[in-house]
Amino acid sequence: MNQDKQQKRKAQILDAALRVLVQKGYDSSRIDDIVKESGMSKGAIYWYYKSKKEVYLALVDHWVHRYSVTLNHIVEEKRPAADELKDLFNFFIAQYESDTVVFKALLEFWSLAGRDEDFHQKLQLVYSDFLYLIQKILELGKKSGEFKDIDITATALSIMINIEGMIWFTLFDVNDLTPRRYIQTITDFILAGLQKKSH
Amino acid sequence: MNQDKQQKRKAQILDAALRVLVQKGYDSSRIDDIVKESGMSKGAIYWYYKSKKEVYLALVDHWVHRYSVTLNHIVEEKRPAADELKDLFNFFIAQYESDTVVFKALLEFWSLAGRDEDFHQKLQLVYSDFLYLIQKILELGKKSGEFKDIDITATALSIMINIEGMIWFTLFDVNDLTPRRYIQTITDFILAGLQKKSH
DNA sequence: TAAACTAGACCGACCAGTCGGTTTAGTTTA
DNA sequence: TAAACTAAACCGACTGGTCGGTCTAGTTTA
Which of A170, A188, B116, B170 falls between 20 and 30 A from B110, CA-CA? Predict the structure, then answer.
């Protein structure tokens, strides 16, 4: 069986695992749920992954890989820092509007990171990279004279937290506030705080 | 047995439940863990609460009640909106610095809200109230002419998300960034975005 | 024909909640 | 005031069910 087919099979398992994860949470998600959801057999799942935990660790990698391609692309081409930030926000809006399930899963992984060292290590790395990426944008804006002299680390974290905060919309209602309007508001807000007055 | 003793017993259970919750997560937390942690017997716990779920639902109420006293106090006395906001932030810094365990538990409750209707309803209410409180402060600042004409709902949510974002520090490391420095940075940031230029 | 499966029985560990019984604190009786 | 009584508070062994992971015996795919 070729690599492609194997990748498809793995993706089939991970897709099922993702759906199960957001419905039940990690601890209450059953291998048999993944069996049902994926349409594969228990044997097949244990053929590709050696344990339940391995499945979910692979799920993190799967999505990190998907996201990092686009994210790195945003920073690579040199443009005004403000535009790069906007692209970043827009990417996550688009992501949210096309499918909220990944955001829901994220919450579960945060929770897991708090009590499992393997998940903690993996996510620590993911977030270090993500923060580094935002910091690069901020530094760029600072060096080019586009941005004020702000605390880059703290600002980067705030930006990240506001993006991750979209999880909130998957959980609760806020009057008629949409993620799009939310992100647009905080984009304006953040840029107002960052940019030097141009007049 | 008098009310006081009963309340003490319940607090003893809830304290233990909180510690167990952050160590194991909801689904993997065992009644026997609470037994061990509280020094009480299984029978005693089931005497006060009819199920595991009831214990944790009571835990939410317990802390909501504790927090709401202070929070409402901050808004009650009429002072400049910026000062009220600062007090809000300072309250959560103090809270975090004295004990991070409640922040960790919060994450678990968010996760639970995503898959359990009872927890969802309870937290929806908690957050509606909290958002309402922040909105009141923002409206106050707007009416008094202290603040610009911002999107109150979206700004309130962003403030809340940045506060809740302190959870991040219980999970991961960011270079040498502390919650205090983080909150101070975003306080400046937010106030800069909100306040009218005073010169 | 070897790898990639399917179906599902099975094992051992684990655990929420129950229940029969005991203790404690307080009240009534004689 | 001491014995008898009562109900709340509490104890912990036990049960019925659950589930991750294994394994077997056969089938399909490339």
Answer: A188
CATH fold label, A1-50 = Arc Repressor Mutant, subunit A (1.10.10)
As a whole number of angstroms, the distance between CA B52 and CA B66 comes to 22
- Which residues 30-69 on A are within 7 A of strand D at the CB atom? 30-32, 42-43, 46, 50-53
Contact A189/B111, CB-based, under 8 Å? no
Is B75 in contact with B84 (CB distance < 8 Å)? yes
Q: Supply the CATH classification number for the domain A52-194.
A: 1.10.357.10
Scanning A36-95 for CB atoms below 8 A from B yields: none
pLDDT above 50 (res A199): no
Is pLDDT of B126 > 70?
A: yes
pLDDT over 50 at B68, yes or no:
yes
Q: Could you give the residue range(s) of every CATH 1.10.357.10 domain in chain B?
A: 53-194
Q: Which residue is nearest to nucleotide C5 (CA to C1')?
A: A44
The tokens of A50 are what?
Answer: 């050696």
User: How far is the alpha carbon of A195 from chain B, nearest alpha carbon, in Å?
Assistant: 11
The token duo for A193 is 């705080």
Q: Across chain B, which distance is largest between two alpha carbons, in Å?
A: 67
Given CB atoms, is B135 within the 8 Å cutoff of chain A?
no
Are the beta carbons of B145 and B196 closer than 8 angstroms? yes
CATH of domain B53-194: 1.10.357.10
Residue at B138: amino acid letter: L
Interval A112-156: pLDDT, tens: 999 999 999 999 999 999 999 999 999 999 999 999 999 999 999
Q: In this complex, which of A104, A128, A162 lies closest to B114 when CB atoms are compared?
A: A104
Q: Which residue of B has its CA nearest to A165?
A: B161
CB A22 within 8 A of CB A101: yes
| Strand D reaches within 7 A of the A1 CB | yes
Task: For CATH 1.10.357.10, list the domain ranges present in chain A.
Answer: 52-194
The boundaries of every CATH 1.10.10.60 domain in chain A are 1-50
Residue B34: name the closest of B54, B20, B48, B51 by CA: B20
